[in-house]
Write a structure and sequence with these properties.
Number of helices: 7
Number of domains: 2
Strand content: 5-15%
Strand order of the largest sheet: 4-3-5-6-7
Helix content: 25-40%
CATH architecture of the largest domain: 3-Layer(aba) Sandwich
Shape: elongated
Order of helices and strands: HHHEEEHEHEHEHE
Radius of gyration: 20 Å
């Protein structure tokens, strides 16, 4: 599916680098933009540049926002619980359930040796430091990671690292289908999984 136009081909190649965007979808997007006023392309390009340059990451929970002072500094949250998630979209999914009122910690991925991702590539050390330096304020760490081999490996690694620390480690109930991603799980199922979480034990 090559065009005589290098500009179109380059644009399609760029769009197709995005997740879940294949060559056909990328082509539809490119052709749609071509049919619109120049202002659409200008606004899109401007928004993307501002996004990359302006978004900040919280130094505590690693959530993205307009400043480093994110909602994890809010006094209305329960400071005794931290929910550990793979990525930012999982925070949004869990918040939307309305069944969780504690803090979050975004790892930025999960341990995956086959993809060359180890513990040092994730925000695990800052999580361990956050828990240990809280004194007795943090009483529970909820592992809300994908029900996959990589997710289980990450949960086991963190639980092992927290052994000896006076904190309860739990994982969301398996109402979340095995092999699924949290962002695609319906809010009712995800909410029940949070509410019916189980203790996580390292064997």
């Amino acid at each position: 599916m090559e065009f005589d136009s290098k500009l179109i081909n380059d644009a399609v190649a760029s769009f197709s680098k995005l997740p879940s965007i294949g060559k056909k979808t990328a082509l539809r997007l490119v052709l749609h933009i071509l049919k619109q006023e120049n202002s659409l392309a200008e606004d899109l390009a401007s928004s993307l540049v501002k996004l990359k340059e302006g978004v900040k990451y919280c130094t505590t929970c690693h959530m993205a926002g307009d400043s480093e002072d994110c909602f994890c500094k809010s006094s209305y949250l329960d400071p005794s619980i931290i929910c550990v998630v793979e990525d930012i979209q999982d925070v949004i999914a869990i918040k939307n359930t309305g069944h969780y009122s504690g803090f979050f910690h975004v790892l930025g991925g999960i341990i995956s040796p086959i993809n060359g991702i180890g513990p040092d590539d994730l925000k695990i050390s800052s999580l361990l430091r956050r828990v240990k330096e809280s004194g007795s304020e943090i009483k529970e760490v909820i592992m809300a990671l994908p029900a996959t081999m990589e997710g289980d490996t990450t949960t086991f690694y963190i639980a092992k690292k927290l052994q000896g620390v006076d904190v309860k480690v739990s994982s969301i109930a398996r109402g979340v289908p095995v092999g699924s991603e949290l962002e695609y799980t319906d809010e009712i199922t995800l909410g029940r999984s949070i509410m019916n979480r189980v203790n996580y034990s390292v064997q």
